[in-house]
Amino acid sequence: MSERIGFIGLGIMGRPMAGHLVDAGYAVTVWNRTRGKTAALVERGAAAADSPREMASRSDITITMVADTPDVLEVMLGSNGVLHGARPGSVVVDMSTISPVATREVARKLAERGVEMLDAPVSGGEKGAIEATLSIMVGGKPEVFERVLPVFQKLGRLIVHLGEIGAGQVTKACNQLVLSLTLLGVAEALTMARKAGVDPAKVRAALLGGFAQSRVLELHGQRMLDRNFEPGFRTRLYHKDMGIVMETGRSVGMPLLGGALAAQLYQIAMNRGLGGDRRPRGIGAGWPDASVPESHRPFLILRTFGMRPQWKDVSRTALLTIRVPESHRQRANASHARPCPVDNSEPVPARIGLLWSSAVRALEAPLPAGPPPARTTTHASRDSSRVAGR
Q: pLDDT tens digit string along 177-199?
């Protein structure tokens, strides 16, 4: 194999992927933040570099497979990053799942050095990485895609070129949106069947024969029936992916009501310490204003979505009214609920969906002691009044 490959990131996905390239006969140089993870691949014939910069200087094609946007920016643009070692004419392929905006910025900086870039996030999980059956979604120049295609073919089964740089990351966001909502639908359907006294296994079998058929119903539906909840992907990473989904929707002015609900559910899992991090964050951690009472916090839009509610300067915000049944309104008033100020720059329909799901959670919270605070009258913008239906 003539192309020399550099591979950064030897986690549950990257390690088997780099191994396939070694087995295919490529000259592979690897780097990982945790040095010990390189040992097994070195024993199989790979070389180890001391930094992303050194690794890129040895490589014709540099592949990154790391966890999140900040990790990609660090290994690409940091003081010892790929940018400072990659040679003109070489190619950088980011196979991580990150923000399309960040992808385009990295590509621009690499282009200034004469280095080409493809974004090529994957779907298929650890199993797909081990079996080299990943789906690979690629953005970038067609001629660069053709150059790297033989490498992709060692890693995946379905490889699709989708357009210019960033198109791969947009497609991956669409993938995560469809997957998260399908998982939610399958989980609710099988649970509803069981609670209604119908055998969920038979319900699944019936659904697999109609338009409700899907790989999620086939594979994850069976896991639900078996009560097999062994994780195949970290919650914190899917939580991160749903943040990218919401960011992408906002960037094109599109409301993602179902996506917002799914993202909230992953946030709840994170708040309960199920993200796989060493220090789980408690509910309310990281709010922009720590003085906001605990009983009011569910009415804030989660910071995951990139919104920063302002509680002080109401003159720069719009107030949205959510219409709920009278019994729920009384409970909300008793729980010290207040209208939620929202940044006017956010698309109005997206605000409605996010506020509604936040309000539902708030109404389920225990009632705090003491009388509700005095309400202040504020001016709501013409737009907000129209959205509220007034």
A: 999 999 999 999 999 999 999 99
How far apart CA 94 and CA 74 sit, in angstroms, is: 13
Counts of helices then strands in the chain (DSSP H, E): 16, 11
Model pTM score: 0.69
Judge contact between 156 and 214, C-beta under 8 A.
no
Which of 32-41, 94-103, 105-114, 381-390 is predicted with the least confidence, judged by mean pLDDT? 381-390
Catalytic residue, chosen from 109, 127, 141, 172, is: 172
Domains and CATH numbers, the chain: 4-165 (3.40.50.720), 172-267 (1.10.1040.10), 289-388 (no CATH)
Q: What is the pLDDT of residues 227-236, one digit of tens each?
A: 988 777 778 8
In the numeric block, which tokens belong to residue 265? 């559910």
The CA-atom distances, in angstroms, between 363 and each of 123, 251, 284, 297 are 37, 30, 16, 12
154 is catalytic: no
